Amino acid sequence: MRSGPSAKELAGATDPGQRRASGMVRRFGVASTSKVIWRLTGVRGLETTEQVDAEVFAGIGIYARPGANGKPEAIVVNVGDARHPVIIATRDEAAAHAIRGDLGANKPAAGETLIFASVGGAVVYLRNNGTVEVRTAAGTAGALATKEEVKALRDYLNALTYGGSGSIAPVGMPNISGTTVLKGE
Asked: What residue ranges do the domains of the chain occupy?
């Protein structure tokens, strides 16, 4: 059910207020993203192709650029007038479709979140059961040993003897400090 005029009707509008309002929020294709300002390609009216440079307003702490092989799109709002376009939302349905295909039957359930690079590679999966998986899209996440479990294994191996000849694990085994990057519970 549509409410309001169609794109064709807006393109033929002569009222300046209606024409200004129709251009305030628009969808564009992303042409290039080599800087903070992205080059966008869109259509004004029904026939005229235009390029616009717009600043990206992404979420705080998030910086992402689409891959060259996708079909990224952006929603642009003109702040004040058309001289101040800003990108407020982005998506790349081609990349999302590819990731969904790689996931196979392991697609996110309602309420789950998948963060992925638009050219494949790693995914971060936030699951409803409280787990966080970091893996490839087609991969299977496995349980990771905790630092305490690795220490217990070290102690177990150090306590083993083979034929009464003593410890089979090196006596000077290094201390297990764990990674400083990946943290877990």
From this structure: 7-91, 94-136, 144-185
Question: Is residue 27 within 8 Å of 42, Cβ to Cβ?
Answer: yes
Instruction: Report the alpha-carbon distance of residue 157 to residue 3 in Å, rounded.
Output: 71
Q: Which two tokens stand for residue 30?
A: 């992303």
Compute the average pLDDT of residues 147-152.
82
Q: Which CATH number fits domain 7-91: 3.40.630, 2.40.50, 2.60.40, 3.30.200?
A: 2.40.50
Phi, psi of 95 (to 5 degrees): -65, -45
| H/E run at residue 22 | helix 16-22
State whether residue 136 is helix, strand or coil. Answer: strand
- pLDDT tens digits, residue range 79-122? 876 678 889 998 888 888 888 888 877 788 899 998 888 776 78
CA 58 – CA 6 distance, rounded (Å): 29
Q: Read off the tokens for 158.
A: 């150090």
Return the C-alpha torsion angle 24, 26, 29, 30, nearest 10: 40
Which strand ranges, in their side-by-side order, compose the sheet holding 122-126? 113-116, 122-126, 132-136
